[in-house]
C-alpha cells in the first residue's frame, strides 16, 4: 500500500512541478475545486506528498497526528479549514496544510 501511495505521490509531484514550471502553484482554491469534485485519488495523493515532505521538517506535527489518520481525513481537514478561512485560499496548499492540520490535531 505504501508503494502505491508513493508511486501516486511521485506522479502527482511531477504534475505539481510541471505546473510550477509554468509559473502556477496549486492553491487552496485549486485544492477545494478538486476536493469538491470528489477527485479522491488526486487529493489523497497530493496530501500524501505534503505529508511525506512534513516528516523531516515538522516531526512534532507528525507525532501529534499519529499513524492511524488516513490521507482522506487530512484532506477533509484542509478542505474545512479553507472553507472557513477564505482569505487563505490564494496561498499554496503546501503552506496551508500544516496550519490546517495543526489546528485540528493537537498534542495531548
TrEMBL record:
- Superkingdom of the source species: Bacteria
User: What InterPro entries does UniProt report for this protein, alphabetically?
Assistant: Rap1a
Task: Identify the stretch annotated as signal peptide in this record.
Answer: 1-23
The chain positions of domain Rap1a immunity protein read: 29-107
| Pfam families, A to Z | Rap1a
Q: Which controlled-vocabulary keywords does the entry list? A: Signal
The entry's protein name is: Rap1a immunity protein domain-containing protein
Amino acid at each position: 500500500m505504501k508503494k502505491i501511495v508513493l508511486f501516486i505521490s511521485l506522479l502527482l509531484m511531477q504534475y505539481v512541478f510541471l505546473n510550477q514550471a509554468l509559473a502556477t502553484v496549486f492553491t487552496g482554491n485549486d485544492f477545494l475545486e478538486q476536493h469538491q469534485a470528489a477527485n479522491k485519488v488526486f487529493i489523497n495523493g497530493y496530501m500524501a506528498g505534503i505529508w511525506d515532505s512534513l516528516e523531516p521538517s515538522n516531526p512534532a506535527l507528525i507525532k501529534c497526528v499519529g499513524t492511524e489518520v488516513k490521507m482522506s481525513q487530512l484532506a477533509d481537514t484542509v478542505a474545512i479549514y479553507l472553507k472557513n478561512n477564505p482569505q487563505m485560499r490564494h496561498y499554496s496548499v503546501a503552506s496551508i496544510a500544516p496550519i490546517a492540520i495543526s489546528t485540528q490535531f493537537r498534542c495531548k
